[in-house]
């Protein structure tokens, strides 16, 4: 069944200023993987993979917090809210701690744990426990004190044998003692002991691998990883309940003890009286894997691994509803396509060596598909994609937006009509073929790059077979073209993205043969651009990204850098297609632009600038000729949640640049829009320009190469520019020298040939 979520416009207005000219950003994060929950008197706080949200149970209002607001894009592992200090504390797997002041929204990033001289893999924060203004932080190496008032770290307790590191899962204070549930026993010390940094002050009460410990009423309870609940009494622990499954979360409040296993959530009152129990099998349309649970004002919130946050009450038979904020199915969008009206995203794919079996350590993966438009997010769950695994790309039919095709790098080509998957092209019902070298009975149909030509034919790449280039004609017939004449060894070729130029030449990225080009007009002809000075001058045969700019240049992103083919029109009349690097001056020394960079994506915006996404260095915005790096966005200077960029796409009408990373998708509110066909829809914003505004004035809806002159009311020229694309910016200065005064300014616009003109006005208030 399709999952359709309601659109909330406030979720689409998440902007924040960063160091690069207070740029405008927006986040599109998934909230489906709940890591932890916390609560105040009437507010529920939830942490997903790398974003937060809170819900006021009285007003029913929802608030989200993401990297746009200052969070890290790393993986969250623990969450806590201090009612006393009105602060929310976020813990991460790498040891980062972020303190959010709920009074003003400010954030403090604390890196003391990250900076400890310890192995990086034992710095994970597992749990927070507050006692008398001190937060006891349970980590994979021990316990750290954090003062919630001064926001400074205190002592660190290494309480393993002989003072070594030990993974502490949870702490609790009970009858004057501090208890720690560890991977090797429950350990106890007096909370008033001023020398707890001495491991000899800690007593081991019971061995075993413990997952949690909490004080509830007049009792102390602890859980083991094998699913048993123990109660403390007479100076020892004794088993009181067995769940037969791993206990992943144990917590309590004034009235309830909450025990969570992957398949069951149990609520107990005093004396371990069972109040309510929810099994995952009760939620038929989801069958979720539970991760945690909490209670706020008699509302029971259930965290899940893939199905977000569910909500119900403690009443018998109460319905279970979805309380998850809007977002894509997953954060790790592998690729997407965006048009002026919608965006489609997929999550399958393959590793860097085109291996679908190792992707996310469990491939070939069966994931769903997401679509976003003005009505909100629509999710097609994995159960509805007709078994198509490792879906790596998606394309919208330019002649019929209701028809979409998703490439499966394992199962074939999935057709979606009116948002419903209805046909899977594979080796039995189409011209697509399974790889043959694993034997005739093993099925593995690797479809990846897709592109529509101007006749409405859909071209697809079918990797690791001889007839690797296929076309689904507009009449429904399939045709195949052999790669044997062009590839070194066709059954070894894995193909990535594909695009078609205005001459109907297909340009295909491959991992073994560089760029494969094909044109079927007249005599079908293959050519390729590959490694070596006499074979195309690529730095490697492994090509990952292709883009054709407005000057008909082919920009080629490889696993070892960037190359440019000067003119795609030369395909038919040139025997050798040779590329060149872009040479720039850096500190007066000639350098190759993006030397040795692993490039995953290249997109050309409306001003002919190039957006380049890399495997580990973030995003570069390059000028049209590549000689200037306009921006270089990373996790350090922007809301990017990761420096690993999977895909980039641009809404040609709004100029919004979408960037998909391994940890979530964000967008940059750019101004480089596609050129218009006339000057009939030219508009100026903001207008008027008020004193508090610090950005630039945009003149949009322009023809390409339109001449724009701005004068004051007396006719004095203050700015002049020629558009590249559909938008230009004015910084409201007189040729960059000084801010112009308050007043009305005239904007005179003319087409390149002077035939079409337009006049606009803008008011500036200082």
Automatic annotation (TrEMBL):
Domain PorZ N-terminal beta-propeller, chain residue ranges per copy: 44-203
Keyword Signal annotated: yes
InterPro entries per the UniProt record, alphabetical: PorZ_N, Reg_prop, Secre_tail, WD40/YVTN_repeat-like_dom_sf
Signal peptide: 1-21
Keywords attached to this entry: Signal
Protein name: Two-component regulator propeller domain-containing protein
Organism: Flavobacterium polysaccharolyticum
């Amino acid at each position: 069944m399709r999952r359709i979520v309601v659109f909330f416009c406030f979720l689409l207005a998440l902007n924040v200023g960063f160091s690069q000219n207070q740029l405008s950003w927006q986040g599109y994060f998934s909230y489906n993987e709940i890591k932890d929950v916390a609560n105040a008197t009437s507010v529920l706080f939830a942490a997903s993979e790398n974003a937060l949200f809170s819900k006021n149970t009285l007003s029913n209002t929802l608030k989200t917090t993401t990297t746009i607001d200052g969070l890290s894009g790393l993986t969250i592992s623990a969450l806590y809210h201090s009612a006393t200090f009105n602060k929310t504390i976020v813990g991460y797997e790498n040891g980062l701690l972020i303190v959010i002041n709920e009074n003003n929204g400010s954030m403090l990033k604390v890196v003391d744990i990250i900076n400890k001289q310890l192995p990086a893999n034992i710095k994970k924060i597992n749990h927070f426990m507050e006692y008398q203004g001190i937060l006891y932080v349970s980590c994979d190496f021990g316990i750290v004190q954090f003062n919630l008032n001064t926001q400074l770290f205190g002592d660190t307790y290494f309480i393993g044998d002989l003072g070594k590191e030990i993974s502490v899962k949870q702490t609790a204070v009970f009858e004057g003692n501090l208890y720690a549930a560890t991977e090797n026993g429950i350990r106890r010390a007096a909370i008033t002991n001023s020398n707890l940094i001495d491991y000899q002050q800690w007593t081991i009460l019971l061995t075993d691998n413990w997952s949690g410990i909490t004080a509830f009423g007049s009792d102390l309870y602890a859980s083991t990883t094998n699913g048993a609940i123990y109660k403390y009494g007479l100076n020892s622990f004794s088993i009181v309940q067995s769940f037969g499954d791993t206990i992943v979360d144990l917590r309590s409040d004034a009235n309830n003890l909450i025990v969570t296993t992957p398949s069951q959530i149990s609520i107990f009152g005093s004396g371990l009286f069972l109040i309510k129990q929810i099994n995952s099998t009760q939620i038929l349309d989801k069958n979720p894997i539970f991760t945690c649970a909490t209670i706020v004002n008699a509302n029971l919130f259930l965290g899940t691994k893939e199905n977000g946050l569910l909500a119900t009450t403690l009443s018998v038979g109460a319905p279970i509803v979805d309380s998850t904020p809007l977002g894509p199915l997953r954060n790790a969008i592998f690729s997407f396509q965006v048009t002026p009206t919608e965006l489609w995203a997929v999550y399958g794919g393959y590793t860097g060596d085109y291996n679908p079996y190792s992707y996310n350590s469990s491939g070939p993966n069966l994931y769903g598909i997401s679509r976003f438009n003005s009505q909100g997010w629509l999710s097609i769950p994995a159960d509805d994609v007709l078994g198509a695994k490792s879906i790596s790309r998606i394309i919208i039919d330019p002649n019929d937006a209701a028809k979409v095709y998703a490439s499966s790098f394992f199962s074939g080509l999935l057709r979606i009509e009116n948002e419903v998957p209805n046909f899977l092209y594979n080796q039995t019902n189409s011209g697509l073929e399974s790889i043959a070298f694993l034997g005739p009975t093993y099925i593995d149909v690797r479809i990846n790059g897709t592109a529509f030509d101007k006749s409405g034919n859909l071209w697809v790449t079918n990797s690791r077979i001889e007839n690797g280039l296929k076309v689904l004609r507009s009449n429904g017939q399939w045709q195949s073209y052999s790669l044997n004449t062009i590839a070194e060894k066709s059954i070894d070729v894995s193909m990535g993205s594909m695009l078609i130029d205005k001459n109907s030449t297909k340009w295909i990225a491959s991992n073994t043969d560089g760029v494969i080009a094909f044109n079927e007009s007249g005599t079908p002809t293959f050519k390729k651009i590959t490694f070596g000075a006499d074979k195309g001058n690529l730095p490697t045969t492994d090509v990952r990204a292709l883009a054709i700019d407005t000057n008909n240049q082919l920009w080629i992103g490889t696993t070892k850098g960037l190359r440019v083919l000067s003119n795609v029109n030369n395909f038919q009349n040139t025997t050798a297609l040779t590329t060149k690097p872009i040479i720039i001056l850096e500190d007066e020394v000639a350098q190759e632009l993006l030397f040795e960079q692993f490039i995953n994506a290249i997109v050309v915006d409306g001003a002919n600038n190039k957006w380049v996404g890399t495997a580990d260095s973030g995003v570069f915005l390059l000028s049209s000729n590549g000689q200037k790096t306009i921006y270089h966005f990373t996790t350090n200077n922007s809301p990017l949640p990761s420096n690993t960029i999977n895909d980039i796409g641009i809404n040609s009408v709004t100029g919004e640049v979408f960037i998909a990373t391994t940890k979530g998708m964000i967008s940059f509110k750019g101004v480089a829009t596609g050129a218009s066909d006339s000057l009939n829809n030219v508009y100026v914003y903001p207008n008027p320009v008020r004193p508090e505004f610090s950005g630039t004035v945009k003149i949009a809806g322009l023809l390409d190469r339109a001449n724009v002159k701005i004068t004051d009311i007396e006719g004095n020229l203050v700015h002049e520019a020629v558009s590249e694309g559909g938008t230009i910016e004015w910084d409201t200065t007189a040729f960059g020298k000084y801010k112009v005064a308050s007043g009305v300014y005239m904007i005179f616009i003319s087409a390149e040939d002077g035939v079409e003109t337009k006049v606009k006005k803008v008011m500036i208030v200082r």
